Amino acid sequence: MKKHFHYEYLQSRVGYYTALLSMGALMLIGLAAAIYMETHGHVVTGMTNQIVWGMPHVFAVFLIIAASGILNVASIGTVFNRAPYKPLGRLSAVMAAAALAGGLIVLVLDLGRPDRLIVAMTKYNFKSIFAWNIYLYNGFFAVVLLYLYTQMSQDFRVRRYYKPAGTLAFVWRLILTTGTGSIFGWLVARQAYDLAIFAPMFIALSFSFGLAIFILLMTALMRGDERPLGHGLVNRMGRLLGVFLAAAAYFTVVWWLTDLYAAEHRPVVKFLFFSGNVYSWLYWLGFIGLGTILPMLMVFSNAARTSFKPVIFASILTVLGGISLVYFVIIGGQAYPLVLFPGKEVKSSFFEGVINPYAPSMPEILLGIGGMALGVAIVLLAAKTLRILPVTLADADVDPHLVSGEVREMKKAA
Amino acid sequence: MSDQGARDRNERARHEEIDAARREFLRNIAAASVVSLGGGMMLYTMGGEAFAKKPGDPLDPRKRWGMLIDTSKCTSGCEKCVEACKKENGWEAEPGSQTDVQWIRKVDVKDPKTGFMASLPVMCQHCANPPCVDVCPTGASMQRADGIVKVNMHICIGCRYCMMACPYKARSFVHEEIPEENKRFHAPMGKGCVTSCDLCAHRVDAGQIPACAEACPEGAMLFGDLNDPGSELRKRLKEIRSYQIRADLGTDTGIRYTRLP
Questions:
Q1: How confident is the model at residue B13 (pLDDT cuts 50, 70, 90)?
Q2: Considering the domain boundaries, does residue A76 fall inside one?
Q3: How far apart are CA A196 and CA A36, in angstroms?
Q4: Within-domain flag for A102
Q5: Chain A residues closer than 8 Å to B176 by CB
Q6: In this predicted structure, what is the pLDDT of residue B49?
Q7: Closest to A113 (Cβ–Cβ): which among B172, B176, B193?
Q8: Would the CB atoms of A120 and B95 count as touching at under 8 Å?
């Protein structure tokens, strides 16, 4: 039997407006940081002619990867017909577009000339993966809005196209993340990049980043608005997160194993992964230890069956581990010097052959946080003005198969 | 008498006319000599292979400008080429500054196994297949018909992807306002844009050689047309073994070196 779900606007609560105002404040601080950077030039940031991309790119790339992963929640319901995910489609679509907007605003405001955005929109070099990405990002917004429209329309003739639109969005998001990964994978000159595995690795990472962010925001919205949320559903999403975490870690392991095998790439692998510097710690402790193994233990624990906490903490750790990995990839990859003369000792006034230092500056971090705040603010505003949040996500209402013995007992007691 | 006087006047007038015509002829000869000598001088400085391009004239796609740098003549510590470039194109690099612009730098390279050393200037290598041009989203990073790779500062959005892609670390981001006294009409640099060596395109278009090549006291930097088999550059390249930096990347650089470690 086809289930019908009911969606309702968020209620006007103090908590809602406090959250919205906080996001607004963070956005204003981020904007002020961007104006400061543009007025004084990038000399006031930690970025240099050696570390060309800094903290703004860490935040932006993390959000862009996450955006496509957030949409995965909707795809699991629409494309793969998993019943418990079906009522989450609307929220997933809105949140995905919001995360992409948050990431892109950071990227744009970090440009040397953000006032020339119109140039980027009108002059295309079709050989550039960056230019392709501009199409993929704009297309993502269009496809996701179409998908949302087919989900929310009152007209059954529009709703008929819900599945094709969802499939299109799913395919589009896979291409988009391939594009994001290829920004790095196609950098033939950089020792740390230049690998086709970046595209599938970014897709795997998007699954875990996106699901973690979705779980966190969904839980906050449902609990904040005092709507029922089932342990069975959160537990199921948590276990899926565990699988995604393993997949993402797998790709990173193949990355360094491949590079370790080639004598040419051994020095960069040793530097990034095995030299005890900040980058090695970020990978092994930040991403693998705290961002993969610990959350996996949490989501597959018995406690996760009856409590939200393990999955919530696992999601927070996934986000922090994810940011560690993106920092590791972007900053670590540039910290290792370009090799102009393989196997030779070099010295110059332009920091030839030396490990490039980088200290993130406050304006860069504030700009990044501002972008994240924009994403959350869009979700908050959308949930208040559109019917995207289900009235109930109780296990019995979502999928009776999810109802665990524990929940049945609690219901009986109630 | 009066007839005689009139004839004399006419005669004088005719002589004056002839003199004027002679003077005019001599002036023209002198002017032609100056032009041809000047041209000759120009040909001499260009190694007898290039002509100045008139403003507005299209670039010659049959040419590919390049350079051969003889590292045996290049000594460690000599920065004449770098200084000339700074003066010509208006950039400064404080020692130790991570953010200052650098168009050209001297790199000391040593093979740790053999001890063989070389000192060489490294700038934009003006690749035939430039990765910076491939990745630029707006086309600001561009290649001229004559092979010179440069940044069109007017459509550069400052994304720095070209800096990530360049294998030669040849590009710089302008991190702060350029002082007024350093601004050059022919080498525009703007805060928030990327900049790099353009092989002194303004000089090349005017029939001169790049400032670095001109300043080298040892004549170690031979500039010319890589596509012209008759050029001095091509003759030298035929005689001796030359190398490209990171030739394995297939970028086909326009800057070649002798004796790389």
A1: low
A2: yes
A3: 37
A4: yes
A5: 40-43
A6: 44
A7: B193
A8: no
The verdict on a CB contact (< 8 Å) between A112 and B93 is no
Do the domain assignments include residue A158? yes
Burial A194-207 (b: 16+ CB within 10 A, else e): bbebbbbbbbbbbb
Task: Say how far residue B7 (Cα) sits from the centre of its chain.
Answer: 63
Between vectors from CA A221 to CA A218 and to CA A222, what angle results, nearest 5°? 85
A-chain residue closest to B118, CA distance: A346
pLDDT digits (tens, 9 = 90+) for A169-188: 999 999 999 999 999 999 99
Q: What parts of chain A have a pLDDT lower than 70?
A: 1-3, 403-414
Distance of alpha carbon A365 from its chain centroid, rounded? 17
User: Across the interface, do B193 and A131 touch by the CB < 8 Å criterion?
Assistant: no
Range 120-139 of A in CB contact (< 8 A) with B? 120, 123-125, 127-131, 134
pLDDT at B27 over 70: no
What pLDDT does B54 receive?
79
Q: Give dist(CA A343, CA A208) in Å, integer.
A: 38
Nearest residue of chain A to residue B168 (CA atoms)? A340
Give B-chain residues touching A116 at CB under 8 angstroms: 155-158
Stated pTM of the model = 0.89
With respect to CATH, is domain B65-258 assigned 1.20.140.10? no
Question: Looking at beta carbons, which residues of chain A come within 8 Å of B101?
Answer: 49
Closest chain B residue to the Cα of A108, Cα to Cα: B159
- Poorest-confidence range of A155-159, B70-74, B77-81, B108-112? A155-159
pLDDT of A5: 86
Answer whether A111 sits within 8 Å of B112, measured CB to CB. Answer: no
ipTM: 0.91
Specify the number of domains making up chain A. 1
CATH number at residue A371: 1.20.1630.10
Asked if the model's pLDDT at residue B37 lies above 80, the reply is no
- Which residues form the domain of A65? 7-402
Task: Decide if A412 is inside a domain.
Answer: no
Token pair, residue B108, equals 């000391």
Whether A118 contacts chain B with CB within 8 A: no
* Alpha carbon of B251: minimum distance to chain A alpha carbons (Å): 10
Q: What is the pLDDT of residue A404?
A: 58
* Amino acid B45: pLDDT: 45
What does the mean pLDDT of chain B come to? Answer: 87
The answer to whether A169 and A283 have CB atoms below 8 angstroms apart is no
Res. B10: pLDDT tops 80: no
Euclidean distance between CA atoms B90 and B67, whole angstroms: 22
Tokens at residue B101, please? 């612009």
Which residues in B lie closer than 8 A to residue A49 (C-beta atoms)?
98-102, 163, 172-173, 175
Say how far apart CA B21 and CA B38 lie, in whole Å: 25
DSSP secondary structure letters along A279-302: HHHIIIIIIIIIIIIHHHHHHTST
For residue B166, the model assigns a pLDDT of 97
Q: Is residue A412 within 8 angstroms of chain B, CB to CB? A: no
